[in-house]
Design a protein that fits this description.
It holds the Pfam family Oxidored_molyb. By secondary structure, this protein is of the alpha+beta class. It is about 20% helix and about 25% strand. The protein has a domain of about 150 residues: Sulfite Oxidase, Chain A, domain 2 (Alpha-Beta Complex). Strand 3 and strand 4 form a beta hairpin. The structure holds the ligand Nc1nc2c(c(=O)[nH]1)N[C@H]1C(S)=C(S)[C@@H](COP(=O)(O)O)O[C@H]1N2 and molybdenum atom (MO).
Length: about 230
């Protein structure tokens, strides 16, 4: 084999190995960059589709699936628990259909979300009397969110496995995202990996940067949108 042919072959082989993850990283980074500085609304034309914008505070997010996804419930509970996707699917599922409202103004009508009620996971873990709030963490390694315990027990707050009647895709925060129907969409943490029961509310990523901790649609952040739930 001549030197050029050998190099060519190696090059193609390397490309084959690299292309899929490298492309995904490039896409993630591009979408993240584009959506963060978008006064035009043009990122609405990019993937996530159906009126949704792609948001991520990190340039790339690892992909999690059937084999490596875990959701932990810990903190002020009697029984700390770790769930696989199969574990979550085996629990009672609730389907809700409401509008989605982002605090930057865009709204998507009647979007189905389906998954396990957060209250179910909290009851299973046994929340201690000293508890007052929940802190959510994500496997992007950066995003966090919060709810008061009272908000967390609402029946329209889900640990969502499905969105738009299909499994939550990676760009929408799959395989598992939080869904807080009555609040601005920043509450619905994508790539959910941790539910920690705490004493007090610890403001989340955007809340430390000025958004309201109690994010009711139409009654917070100085906005007057129609409520979503
Ligand atoms: N982990 C994580 N979750 C997140 C965000 C984020 O940047 N990272 N952005 C929030 C905001 S501001 C919105 S509007 C929605 C966007 O969800 P989408 O990308 O499915 O449209 O996710 C919310 N959850
Ligand atoms: Mo948002």
């Amino acid at each position: 084999m001549g030197r050029r042919v050998l190099l060519g072959t190696l090059g193609l082989g390397a490309l084959g190995v690299l292309t899929a993850p490298a492309l995904q990283r490039a896409t993630d980074a591009f979408l993240a960059g584009a959506s963060q500085k978008d006064p035009t609304g043009l990122t609405g034309l990019l993937p996530n589709g159906g009126g949704f914008r792609y948001y991520s505070v990190t340039a790339s997010v690892p992909h999690k699936n059937e084999t490596n996804y875990r959701l932990t419930v810990d903190g002020l509970v009697d029984r700390p628990t770790s769930y696989t996707l199969a574990d979550l699917r085996a629990l009672p599922q609730t389907r809700l259909v409401h509008d989605v409202q982002c605090v930057t103004g865009w709204r998507v009508p009647s979007t189905p979300f389906e998954g396990v009620r957060l209250s179910h996971l909290l009851d299973a873990a046994g929340v201690r009397p000293s508890a007052g709030a929940i802190r959510f963490t994500c496997f992007d390694g950066a995003y966090t969110e919060s709810l008061s315990l009272r908000q967390a027990y609402r029946p329209d707050v889900l640990v969502a496995l499905r969105m738009q009647d299909k499994p939550v895709g990676h760009n929408h925060g799959g395989p598992v995202r939080l869904y807080v129907a009555p609040m601005y969409f920043y509450k619905s943490a994508k790539w959910l990996s941790g539910i920690t029961v705490t004493e007090d509310v610890r403001p989340g990523y955007w809340e430390k940067r000025g958004y309201d901790v109690d994010a009711w649609v139409g009654r917070s952040n100085g906005r007057d949108d129609e409520p979503t739930s």
